[in-house]
Amino acid sequence: MSDSIADRRFVTAAEKVDFLSPWTLEEWLCRGDIVNNEHLLMVRANMEPGRSHPFHSHPTREELIYVLAGTAEQWVGKEKKILRPGDMAFIPTGEIHGTWNVGDDMLVFLAILSPAKADEPAIVDHSGEEPWKSLRQ
Fold it and tell me: What CATH number should be reported for the domain holding residue 104?
């Protein structure tokens, strides 16, 4: 049995990579420093009540957001939907989107992005641009 990243097929909770971003505690389960992947990235995000990942885009990746716990106000473009456990949002490549925890509990969701290996920039902040900075007011 090999412990090398090139041969890894399973990732335990002890092997995930935690990162505290400005928006969430990110628990990375699938990315290049964890498994030898080319097409998928997966992170479990843990967002405190009242926190958000304001409007942004991924110019070179598409994304799925799947809610595990809590209540999300999810925007894809100028369309808004309240998501609860079991709900999912699809974000096409380059589409501006944002996630807000509008509940009283921790919002926990999986973000799955593809491709794993893509040109930079990986993320572009649009929260200071119109109409995005005024959309939720």
Answer: 2.60.120.10
Helix, strand or coil, per DSSP, at residue 98: strand
Domain that residue 116 falls in: 20-125
The predicted model scores a pTM of 0.94
- For residue 124, give the nearest of 25, 57, 50 by alpha carbon: 57
How many domains does one find in the chain? 1
Is residue 35 within 8 Å of 2, Cβ to Cβ? no
> What pLDDT, in 10s, does the model give residues 25-74?
999 999 999 999 999 999 999 999 999 999 999 999 999 999 999 999 99
Q: What is the DSSP string of 35-64?
A: S--SS-EEEEEEE-TT-EEEEEE-TT-EEE
